[in-house]
């Protein structure tokens, strides 16, 4: 609104004997304010609100104000949302007679203006004097769950009443038509949005938002547990993607002592197992004998210890026969360390927090199966080149808190994630980090300081085909694989064995299968990273993997959910020098004899070409680790020439300007020209072949 218009509006108010009555008269004789947006009526109303604050003597009271309040109430149901608060403030509707306000809202409700009645009730804080079920039912039928949430937001007692009502509707024996029948002619009625499934989701959302005890909603909780039971039976007996021990853990914790769920468990056992198997699992889950059908009860009496031994032996044979089909950890079992004390953990951090280190990071938590609350990390895996550390986070957090040092763990995790000299590898890191924050609230701002993080999820859709030594005919063999398992199959040749993925990771001690699975999940990231860096072309990837995996530099502001907060790499062929500074003068010209480099093993063609031009070149062998380049560079004063992701690791290990990223997609000649130009190397005719024997 222009300053001139504002001044004119205020002068107009000053000339009026009764500005409040004047505004009402104007609104009653105009309709432009009824639309959305900033109408002239809206501008005048908001200016009056500001003008009244500057002239406290203007507000009225008594009979005159009551008459104005009665008139404005009639207008509120037609008002756009942005006019409600100014009008309520100007005409002091919070001071009006409460019964009169309730009567007005009730009149709106009876006219079928349910949304308007609810919004006005929220604005005037009338909810404690209303029937929450009556007010919210038509809103739910019109798919206005967000308005229902706002209606109860500030009133814990109403939240509980609403949740109990919704839970009653979710009882399988309840006829939902009893609720919908009185509203058959309702405008914008969406019956497809009013069913137990949708209501159940709403209950869980409200339980989480308002931190209400789930025990208040037994019907919804039982139904969710039953869905979990069905899902677990599907995973074990149809997909066959869960081990027996893992499955048994979840069945037992899901059913517990709930008689209703025990009854459903027995029915599912009968459908999927023979009588003997059903009896064994009924005993394992402590189902009362009186609940068992006769056939299972008879089998239960025959069971003895030998049966269990036979079953375990059979399972072991099955497990070992399947192992050869999956990715296997290439490090010995004694190099996997399960850490439960701070003494062990501090030794681990000493190894992990080394400049130039590459660390595979993964996390595990107990699956929630759709229950309330964010999952809390139960295990943090850190994989190095030849060993894996599994950190028991609940135990370590408990110990630190008992010692009055609860900041100890978040401090170390922040050191790891904020150190640009350490490359952290993950897969789908946003989920891991949100669970880490739910576990340890002190880490809530960590993503802002993150540097040197590489999320391999970025490469997942770009990897083409299987590992080069695999025949292309095998490409369609394992369509069931997905996510990290599929990437491992494509790059390393065999998928991950994911049967322990949905384990109860909070249960201690961990089973041996869980330990091996957790270690594999973190260690395979190192192998994928190394393989893609050495041979990107075999997987149809652009040779500059830095841009694919770490993310391109962008001038746009970072999206709120973006987790890779590390400094973005420069485009290929430019040296990355941290924050941009003013352009400096080009380096002084030097001859090829004065220029010495070490070439990473994917740049052997460039190295040979530079040697032909008289440059002092050392080449890494194919089997050499990229980090060897940094050792040679430091010892012999050479510049590192590298490409893709190793650049992120190597540049932190040498002085500024001593590491250069080359575009692998170009031919050796173009690469050489790029290097010579950047370092201002002047080649003369006598330099060419000067180093050749």
UniProtKB/TrEMBL annotation:
Biological-process GO terms, alphabetical: nucleobase-containing compound metabolic process
Region Disordered, residue ranges: 556-587
Example of a GO MF term: 3'-5' exonuclease activity
Keyword Acyltransferase part of the UniProt annotation: no
InterPro entries per the UniProt record, alphabetical: 3'-5'_exonuclease_dom, Exonuclease_MUT-7-like, Mut-7_DEDDy_dom, Mut7-C_RNAse_dom, RNaseH-like_sf, RNaseH_sf
Domain 3'-5' exonuclease stretches: 336-537
Superkingdom field: Eukaryota
Keywords: Exonuclease, Hydrolase, Nuclease
SUPFAM superfamilies per the UniProt record, alphabetical: Ribonuclease H-like (SSF53098)
Name of the protein described by the UniProt record: MUT7 Exonuclease
Gene name for this UniProt entry: Exd3
